[in-house]
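Q: Sequence in, structure out?
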Amino acid sequence: MTRVVIADDQELVRSGFRLILEVAEIEVVGEAANGREAVQLAGTLRPDVVLMDVRMPVMDGIEATRRIARAGLESRVLVVTTFDLDEYVYDALRAGASGFLLKDVGRERLVQAVETVAGGEALVAPQILERLVSHYVRRPPPEVALRAELAGLTDRELEVLTLVGRGLTNGEIASSLFISLPTVKSHIRSLFAKLDLRDRAQAVILAYESGLVPQGA
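A: Exactly. Output:
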């Protein structure tokens, strides 16, 4: 059973999420009213997923996400917020979040998102990703130097990373490159290890920031 911690400063929101998830037989193992509590619960309870709000007192969701990722916890962070702003999406994904959803998503979509992220996949709505890329490719962070890192990849791994950056699933990548699904997964594991990537969300950002996937591709 998937185990979840809900982090939101509004008790009503936490209660609503808990009800939706528990009806779907997803276990809510804890609730946090701020980012600091979320980090503490992630460390002690080791949930599969942390549903993380962005704007919270004491510590915001972005910093909490960053600390969970840096701690090396296996818990995945799914950011759920009312703020549909590029800066929040970008900051959350750079901090280590595995997905980003708005609070107006339907019940089925929320449950599906939690299960997807718990399974190790990234979840970013295509329209959000498109806006994210179009905004940040024009001014990628100056402190990020990726050329040396990419030089360590094989030609096939570069091809796979490019297709990941374009949003293709593993199955679509396999079809595009005429290779098997297990081979695709092997290449992805290898390039993730070489580039120290946590998941596909970070791989997408890297592919665009490095220029591997041109804007509009």
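The mean pLDDT is 84.
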